[in-house]
Specification:
single chain; mainly alpha; about 80% helix; globular
């Protein structure tokens, strides 16, 4: 099977885990605010570990192999991370979107409906994750790609539940909340396809792409997920979740090679 198809399928499966996480809302189940923050902390921990162990470190290794210099490899990693952070920060400032807690951000949305603003916010969040999975496969290491897809899928489940619960809290019906949560994950295979195609067609950009994807995810972790988990006084629960997510992803990355 081609690397591009691996990247597409891997990011698709990871994205569909948002649907799995949203299933409880179909049965009228909700979770406490503390558990929501704990699960989102878990998602942040998985993303943080994936950024370093599955993206930054392999990117540095690829750059060293290509250029024969650890200094150049480090500079590429730094440059790629900064570009990833700046790119997502720019999207966050330019695109109109809305978070249920923080309210509206970006440029004036005009008459755009609230649900579309929310979908844009989720897209800004999920696109880098799909791109990371695609780039992980694009390096030709199927095991690394599968590790990334597994990790991102694990953290997508609590995110899907959080999205569905938030929608229910805003008065959306069970089926509609579940459907929107499912659709929010389907932007990931789009990012995955772009990521895997880019690094497959142009091998020299692989180290840059890995670091870029890591920077994009680090921005999402710092700007959105961690502040949200600390907003309601459940910092200890959120930190416990983050620790579990980080060490689980570390274990998966090391044990799977």
């Amino acid at each position: 099977m081609s690397i591009i198809l691996w990247g597409l399928l891997g990011s698709l499966l990871a994205g569909l885990m948002t649907s799995v996480g949203a299933v409880p809302v179909l049965y009228g189940r909700t979770i406490s605010r503390a558990w929501n923050d704990r699960l989102l902390g878990f998602a942040a921990g998985v993303m943080l570990a994936a950024s370093f162990f599955s993206l930054i470190l392999p990117g540095i290794e690829a750059a060293e192999a290509r250029y024969g210099s650890s200094t150049i490899a480090a500079l590429i990693a730094v440059g790629g991370i900064v570009l990833g952070v700046v790119a997502v920060a720019g999207l966050n400032e330019l695109l109109p979107h809305e978070h249920f807690i923080e309210g509206r951000e970006g440029v004036d949305a005009g008459a755009m409906s609230r649900i579309w603003l929310f979908i844009i916010a989720i897209t800004i969040h999920n696109f880098p994750e799909g791109m990371a999975v695609g780039i992980g496969f694009g390096g030709g290491d199927i095991t690394n790609g599968m590790t990334l897809a597994t990790g991102i899928g694990l953290q997508n489940a609590p995110e899907g539940l959080a999205v569905a619960v938030a929608l229910r809290g805003q008065g959306y019906g069970k089926l509609r909340a579940f459907a929107i949560a499912t659709l929010s994950g389907l932007v990931e295979p789009v990012g995955g396809l772009i990521g895997v195609a880019a690094v497959t067609l142009s091998e020299p950009i692989l180290p840059w792409g890995l670091a870029f994807a890591a920077g994009a995810m680090i921005y999402v972790i710092s700007h959105e997920i961690i502040p949200e988990t600390h907003r309601h006084g459940h910092q200890n629960a959120a930190t416990t979740g983050l620790t579990i997510g980080l060490v689980l992803m570390l274990f998966l990355d090391v044990s799977l090679g």
